[in-house]
Each structure stands twice: as C-alpha cells, then as structure tokens.
Amino acid sequence: MLPATQWRVARNQTFTLGPGEGNLRSRQDLGKTGVEDMTQLEDLHEASLLWNLKLRYDNGLIYTYAGSILIAVNPYKMVADAYGIEMAKTYSGKPLGALPPHLFAIGSAAHAALPSSQVVVISGESGSGKTESTKLVMQYLAAVVPGGGSAVQQAVITEQILEAAPLLEAFGNARTSRNDNSSRFGKYLEVFFKSGAIIGAKITQYLLEKSRIVTQAPGERNYHVFYELLGGLSEAERTKYGLLEADKYFYLNQGASDCSPGRVDWISLQGAMQVLGVSESEREGIVNVLASVLHLGNIYFHRRQLRHGQEGVEIGSEAEIKWAAHLLQIPSEGILRSLTSRITETRSERLYTPLSIDQALDARDALAKALYSGLFNCRFSPTW
Ligand SMILES: Nc1ncnc2c1ncn2[C@@H]1O[C@H](COP(=O)(O)OP(=O)(O)OP(=O)(O)O)[C@@H](O)[C@H]1O
C-alpha cells in the first residue's frame, strides 16, 4: 500500500492523486514475459489480465492459461516452429501445465482423459482464430493418435478428417470486413475413438448465413466455392453450364470486392470431395446447383400493368430461367410461374396471384437460398 500522493506512471510522467485516491499499490512485477497461468496473478481484474497477455504477445507467446482454459491471441502470422509433428509429439502424453501453454496441450489433455467423453469448446469473436484453432486440434490428433484398423484404413481416416476442413470452408466460409476466411455457420465436430484409436468423425453444421448467398455488404464476398468454381472450370465446362466470369454475376459482384478465385483451387476441392467419398455424379449435381444459383441471380423483371390497375411482372431474361431449369432438370414454365405469381391451392382449383416486382425479386432470392442451403446441409454432413 503506498501513501504517496504522486504516482509515477510511465517514463517521466507523473500525476497528482486527489483526496481519497491514495490507496494504490505497485503493479505485480510480471517480468519480461508475464506469467503462463493467469491464476498466478495477484490482481485478478481486466487490466492485469490484459497486461499479462500483452507482455506475452509482445514476446511471441500467443498462448496463456487461465487454469484449464487456454487463451489464444491471434498473431495473424505463422509463428515459426509453433506447430507441426515434432511439436505435437512433444506435447503428447504430457499433463496440462507440464509444458508452456499450447493448443496441443489441450488436445493432449482431452485425449488423455479418454475413454470418458471430452469436449473442447473454442469460442471468440469473428477473426479471433477459432477455425484455425479447430484445425490445429485436429492436426494434433491426426499426428499423435493412431487411426483404427489397418495401416491403409488409418491413413484414409486421417486424410478424410484433414480434407473435410477445406471442403466445408469452401461452402461455408466467405470474405467479410473482419476476416478473409470467416465461417458463416456453426459447426460441431465429433471424433470417435475406440481403444485409444480414431475410428471416425462426424461434422454437424448449422445456422448457415443464408442472406450472403444473394447479397453482400461492400467489400465482402459470397461463399468461396462460387469463385473457386468459376476460376477452375475449363472453357468447355463453362459452356456446358452456361457460365461466364465471376464478375458477371449479380450474386457475386454486389460487394464490389474482387472476384478472384481466392483460397483453394477447384481441382484441389474436387480432390477433397473424392477423398470424402463424394461420387462423380454427386459432384456433377453440386455444380448444377451452384451454376443454377448463379443463373437465378441474373434473372431480372420488368413491371407490368395488369387489368384493374393491378401490378405484375414479366421476366426480362428467359435465357437464365432456361439454364436454371435445364441444370435442375425441372420445367422452365414451373420456375417462371413460381417467380411471377403466388399460388394458392383450394380444394377444387389453383389460384395464381401476380407478384409485384419486389415480391418477384424476393421469390427469386428465396429459391436461390433454398437451393444453396439445401446443398450445404445435405451434402456436407460427412460421417465416417
Ligand atoms: N494460430 C494462428 N497462427 C497464425 N495465424 C492465425 C492463427 N489463428 C488465426 N490466424 C489468422 O487469423 C485469421 C482468422 O482466423 P480464423 O478464421 O480462425 O478466425 P475465426 O475466429 O474462425 O473467425 P470467424 O468467426 O469469422 O470464422 C486466419 O485466416 C489466419 O490468417
């Protein structure tokens, strides 16, 4: 406790304390690199926690414990030798706290506590590093835990677990103002063990951000897969699906962000699908859906005055409807009707009420969202 009324704060700055403000004591000396576990801090309040994290971060130490919780400060650059098989082996079998704080220590602790069920909860704000941390925990498990079955089965399981991430990211991640690879869905990843060995995994994904399929804020993009598809198709394939360059699509160019293919090339993505057992005909179906979503986005409408002062619409671009119908293998009249009128069914008849231009645009977007989210939900719940 210091009785002084003058407190030295930083360098040569001083300030005078007012009456009743003298109950101050010096900050705990955390040394150059802070403490590895926040529970060692004498003062447990926001300022001291942040100060400790800063000291460590400034020294290239991005991980800190708070008891059995690991706090990671995103370095936004690869920290040399921080991960990899050697590091995974170093942490394998060591109890939490035996070595400096690390994500691999969390993986090791969870693995050591088997066979009772374990859960690693990774949370944080957008761009804080959840996706990367999830992949690192999986990399750790794939590196140090044997797969079940024969050597070939083990290799297949490990490869499938690691290939699932880029595939899910292609369909569920997008560039946002905060993160170039932001996950726009929640995921729950389960890894199954038997006798200490990995025998399978399951990813459940939920709450995909559907609005992004049809609209993007300035500087943001649609899901990576669209740009990867258009960047990777050959000329012949483009012709087959009636596709143009990415910047020609309303669903891709609204954010006025660049339309380059970005993260993963289409060939690698197809390779990942193959590894995960997506057949060639299913892959063909996936491209059909993606291409039809793009075609739907380029459909536009003209206002039409109907009898009795009623407003209706007519399609401005038959070609896009025909492409979507062809790719989805449904009659184009059906799409046309559903985008221009509301259908009400009674016992004896069907009533068609014309849509206004805003309603028609909503109907178009709703169809595109239903197609894409249907694809995301049913094709990408891999279970091994
Ligand atoms: N451990 C790390 N080492 C180096 N870079 C990292 C690490 N973790 C994250 N990053 C960098 O930060 C970026 C954002 O991280 P990440 O996508 O994991 O965030 P997130 O929390 O999953 O975000 P969102 O909620 O938007 O999906 C990554 O693309 C990567 O460049």
From TrEMBL:
Gene3D superfamilies: 1.10.10.820, Kinesin motor domain (3.40.850.10), Myosin VI head, motor domain, U50 subdomain (1.20.120.720). InterPro entries: Kinesin_motor_dom_sf, Myosin_head_motor_dom-like, P-loop_NTPase. ATP binds at residues 124-131. Residues 33-384 form the Myosin motor domain. GO terms for molecular function: actin filament binding; ATP binding; microfilament motor activity. Keywords: Actin-binding, ATP-binding, Motor protein, Myosin, Nucleotide-binding. GO terms for cellular component: actin-based cell projection; cytoplasm; membrane; myosin complex. The keyword Methyltransferase does not apply. PROSITE patterns: MYOSIN_MOTOR. GO terms for biological process: actin filament organization. The keyword rRNA-binding does not apply. It holds the Pfam family Myosin_head. Belongs to the TRAFAC class myosin-kinesin ATPase superfamily. Myosin family. This is Myosin motor domain-containing protein. It comes from Culex quinquefasciatus (Southern house mosquito).
